[in-house]
Amino acid sequence: MRDVPKLYFGLIIAFIVSFGSVFVQQAGFMPFAIVCGSMVAGLLAWRWTNWRHPADPKRLLPIYLITAAMLMLHLWEEYVFDFAPRIAELNGTTWSGAEFLFMILFVLPSVWIMGAIGIYFRNPLGNYVAWLIFVGMIFGEPAHILVFPIKTAGPYDYFPGMWTALFPLVTALWGIHVILDDLKRQRAAEGAA
Amino acid sequence: MTNSTHPQTAALDGRQVWDHMDDRPVRLEVPSWVYFLLLVSTSITVGIAAVLYLPWPIAVSNIASVLVALAFWRRHTYGRVASRRILPLYIFGIVVLLLQGLEAWGLGFVDHMSGWVAESVRGTEFTEAIHLSVLSIVSSCLFLVGAIGVFFHHPLGSYLAWFLFVVAIAQGVFPFVAILPAGGGIYFPGMAMGVVAVVTGSTGLRRLFSLPTIDHKEVSDA
Hints:
The complex is a heterodimer of chains A (193) and B (222).
Chain A: H1 4-27, H2 29-48, H3 57-80, H4 83-91, H5 97-120, H6 124-140, H7 143-146, H8 148-151, H9 166-192
Helix pairs in contact in A: 1-2, 2-6, 3-5, 3-9, 5-6, 6-9
Chain B: E1 10-12, E2 15-17, H1 32-53, H2 56-77, E3 80-81, H3 87-106, H4 109-114, H5 128-151, H6 155-178, H7 191-210, E4 214-215, H8 216-221
Antiparallel strand pairs in B: 1-2, 3-4
């Protein structure tokens, strides 16, 4: 019988490679490291934890939806205050507003919002998307406070995305806690059975 | 110990208390008519903002969607809430609207609209920033919050479910309506995903009508 989680693993690797190869050329190394690094770290976390034990959607879905909503709000702040050109300046690339919109405001959100359907149906791929987002929030959001403003020439000042950066991080940590706790319960239930 | 000089104090277990508040849990019970009035107020406010800042065809489309959704919600879900089982289609609807926004943005919706109406009645130019902010990004955020409301059986979440599917139909039809006054041609940005949006919206509405609703009071007491 085909091992479905392994198939998903292969699909995810293919997605990361395709997306990453385009993204690094557009945005430069720093955003690539954050976004694709999160994809890889999320993949490993998913593989090592609940890839065969998707979390109970009644516990995970609302937290995931809150995180997704706050992330959209954060991306809106980045769009309004011209995140892409500022990052391009830091990286010495030419990441345009249009490229940012396409990849970060349309393509990726479509993937992670669809991930919510996967979580609803307790699909392993949906749980990978949850890991991707949660790990991404841990890697990427503090950078708006601790990395980007410091790397910018001049005194510490506002960097696009700063005001809304930390809130999705909180719910991401909550989401990870729920995934791990749910996994512990599932394993305990299996052990008892 | 009692304070016999002040009639409004009371002695309780030997303590003087100046008020009668305690820390027992309190449930905020919101009557359905309050939600209805909240929605009416929001509709009026959003409607005014839409007329002031968006080209009138887009404002009319969105105001009509708000009102139709309100009518459906009032008729079918008032005092009750939508089932969580609408969530997969609802979430799919958010993605469809986002992808329609991508198609529209990528293929020059704002430029095409300027061939019909370029400004709001107030003279605010309809720009890409307004198009994206209002019609794609903020609305996606709002609908995601609505999904949380649907999940937790909140009446306002149920309204947003109706609104999402109605707006999917309205935004799906809009490019087909806009094409002639905008200068003709065979394509208007948003048309391709508009077809998917109409199908998603109609399916969603049918499902909302067919799924059993849950008594809001039963949910509150659960």
